[in-house]
């Protein structure tokens, strides 16, 4: 392997495995600086790429790995035990959060090339984002997304607690941040508390612990934020993962107006909570506090699963392709017809986050003039075995495919989409309703 004429690339190898010893030796010869660490002591702040060995025994710690990934703007590559990849929780997690993945025994040459590309992408993206935060929006022309955007204006004028429910990757935190920006407290801080990873007592939260997650509109000093008359917004993500003692403590502080140990009055702080779990079901099971549920869920919002937003798939894919091409300094590529068809067929269990991650990877690794299904790690229609069915089954599949194809190209103009299919606009909407494409 030939070393590139660049400054040393920096690799963080989490939960080191003997299976990668040969690769690590090649990386060092090629100029890589390697730090080996367990998950609990890992520090990714000075690295370009994170390489993580994921085994079946690590499933219980995925929340901690997710928290580490979220804290650092770098690329992550997974090395998977064969048993681990068969676990649905692991496969979804890797598809959502990782630049690429490999199985053991790893192909050293292929993995080396991927790490080199990941390092390049990481540095280009860091340079592009330096000094500015990439603004995101609630994109989509589906009826569900239009209704969600409309709710922002209504909810921004309220100070009531809000419960945001939806599957992983559907934009719950993005919705919370957009709501904060539009609210009258938007000049104040936005604090986040992750119920999945925080295991301390809420009474022990101190200003630095909250200040690490502050993202105010105008960045003041942390202590000034804490003493501010209005503290802004407290966003509790993964609220269902708080322990019972934490739930009781949070309820007490919400009801008694102060968060002990922090100069923040929760009575002046808008509380937004988010979960991908059935919170009311957990209340019935006795694993979530009923009084806290009622305290947090006075108003509720549901974010939309991507599989229910077929009309938005093309728009989102093109958006992410343009965004990541710009960040990586690569020539923009269009999606091939086969890739667009594969995007429509995929179930997207990881929702928008999975789509963004697959597109980001394809922009970095695609070598042809177009992005193909294989670049997205999706199945090409060329290798599919079509299931024989009744004539009605074929008609239904043809209708749905026609709707998805036309929506990929005319998602912003429903009248044009109807004309292309040769049907009236009312018939077009009836077909969308029939196939649950919104």
Topology readout:
Blueprint: E1 10-14, H1 21-29, E2 33-37, E3 49-54, H2 62-71, E4 75-80, H3 82-85, H4 88-97, E5 100-103, H5 108-129, H6 143-156, E6 162-165, H7 172-182, E7 190-194, H8 207-211, H9 222-227, E8 232-237, H10 244-255, E9 269-275, H11 279-285, H12 290-296, E10 299-302, H13 313-328, E11 334-335, H14 337-345, H15 351-365, E12 370-371, H16 391-410, H17 414-421, H18 425-434
Parallel strand pairs: 1-2, 1-3, 3-4, 4-5, 6-9, 6-10, 7-8, 8-9, 11-12
Helix pairs in contact: 1-5, 4-15, 5-13, 6-7, 13-15, 16-17
Which homologous superfamily in CATH is the superfamily of the largest domain?
Answer: P-loop containing nucleotide triphosphate hydrolases
Number of strands: 12
Strand content: 5-15%
Number of helices: 18
Q: What's the N-to-C terminus distance?
A: 50 Å
- The count of domains is 3
- Looking at the structure, the CATH topology of the largest domain is Rossmann fold
Helicity level: 40-55%
Largest sheet strand order:
2-1-3-4-5
Q: Which value, in Å, is the CA radius of gyration? A: 23 Å
From N to C, what is the helix and strand string? EHEEHEHHEHHEHEHHEHEHHEHEHHEHHH
Secondary-structure content class:
alpha/beta
CATH class of the largest domain: Alpha Beta
- Spans where pLDDT lies below 50 across 5 or more residues: 1-5, 206-230, 257-265
Sketch the major β-sheet.
Answer: 5 strands, parallel
